[in-house]
């Protein structure tokens, strides 16, 4: 398909200029998307890698991706290796999704006036995403604070407390395992992970709709 387009433009300077312009725009979009995905994954994961110190083996270690391992990961070197592997995995997945979205968007640019339509809806898209990000960030903040209650209760010197106070502490820890969250009509939780999922789906839908016009 691309070869046929270039052959059609070979004998027409105007069409050749248009094709070259679209090729440059596609190249800019690819570079920008891959760069943004790389920066986003790096800043999300770097705090896990930097703070990868196991102080107390009895405390659950945080991971970039929730998963179970058939081996002990609470050894310092093994824990760092697992975190770096999770970071690389997330980076590769992010690149794959980004390139897929770029491919759909590049195909959409071949439709008439696609660039103008995208620019017109860009501001609305940014404002809508910002509003969704605020809700999702608030939900993520509430989830983290809810987890912090359980961690704080776990770190209390319970062995110096009275039995009735220990029982109350156990209830607090059990309750904190069910995190407080903001929900969308009781159907799904609002969090940064949900925001990333919504952004990925929205970009794919927009690209498909533009390509179908």
TrEMBL record:
<protein>
    <submittedName>
        <fullName>Odorant receptor 67a-like</fullName>
    </submittedName>
</protein>
<keyword id="KW-0675">Receptor</keyword>
<keyword id="KW-0472">Membrane</keyword>
<keyword id="KW-0812">Transmembrane</keyword>
<feature type="transmembrane region" description="Helical">
    <location>
        <begin position="28"/>
        <end position="50"/>
    </location>
</feature>
<keyword id="KW-0716">Sensory transduction</keyword>
<dbReference type="GO" id="GO:0005886">
    <property type="term" value="C:plasma membrane"/>
</dbReference>
<feature type="transmembrane region" description="Helical">
    <location>
        <begin position="122"/>
        <end position="144"/>
    </location>
</feature>
<dbReference type="GO" id="GO:0005549">
    <property type="term" value="F:odorant binding"/>
</dbReference>
<keyword id="KW-1133">Transmembrane helix</keyword>
<dbReference type="GO" id="GO:0004984">
    <property type="term" value="F:olfactory receptor activity"/>
</dbReference>
<keyword id="KW-1003">Cell membrane</keyword>
<feature type="transmembrane region" description="Helical">
    <location>
        <begin position="87"/>
        <end position="110"/>
    </location>
</feature>
<dbReference type="GO" id="GO:0007165">
    <property type="term" value="P:signal transduction"/>
</dbReference>
<keyword id="KW-0807">Transducer</keyword>
<keyword id="KW-0552">Olfaction</keyword>
<dbReference type="InterPro" id="IPR004117">
    <property type="entry name" value="7tm6_olfct_rcpt"/>
</dbReference>
<dbReference type="Pfam" id="PF02949">
    <property type="entry name" value="7tm_6"/>
</dbReference>
<feature type="transmembrane region" description="Helical">
    <location>
        <begin position="195"/>
        <end position="212"/>
    </location>
</feature>
């Amino acid at each position: 398909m691309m070869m046929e387009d270039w052959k059609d433009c070979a004998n027409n300077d105007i069409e050749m200029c248009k094709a070259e312009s679209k090729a440059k725009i596609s190249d800019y979009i690819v570079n920008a998307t891959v760069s943004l995905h790389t920066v986003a994954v790096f800043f999300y994961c770097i705090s896990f890698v930097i703070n990868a110190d196991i102080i107390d083996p009895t405390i659950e270690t945080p991971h970039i991706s929730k998963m179970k391992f058939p081996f002990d990961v609470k050894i310092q070197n093994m824990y760092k290796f697992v975190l770096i592997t999770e970071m690389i995995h997330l980076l590769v997945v992010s690149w794959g999704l980004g390139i897929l979205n770029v491919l759909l968007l590049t195909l959409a640019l071949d439709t008439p006036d696609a660039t103008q339509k995208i620019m017109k809806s860009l501001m609305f898209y940014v404002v809508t995403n910002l509003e969704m990000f605020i809700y999702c960030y608030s939900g993520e903040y509430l989830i983290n604070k809810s987890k912090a209650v359980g961690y704080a209760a776990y770190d209390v010197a319970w062995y110096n407390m009275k039995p009735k106070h220990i029982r109350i502490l156990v209830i607090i820890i059990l309750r904190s395992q069910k995190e407080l969250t903001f929900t969308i009509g009781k159907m799904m939780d609002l969090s940064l992970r949900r925001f990333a999922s919504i952004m990925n789906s929205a970009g794919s839908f927009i690209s498909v709709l533009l390509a179908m016009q």
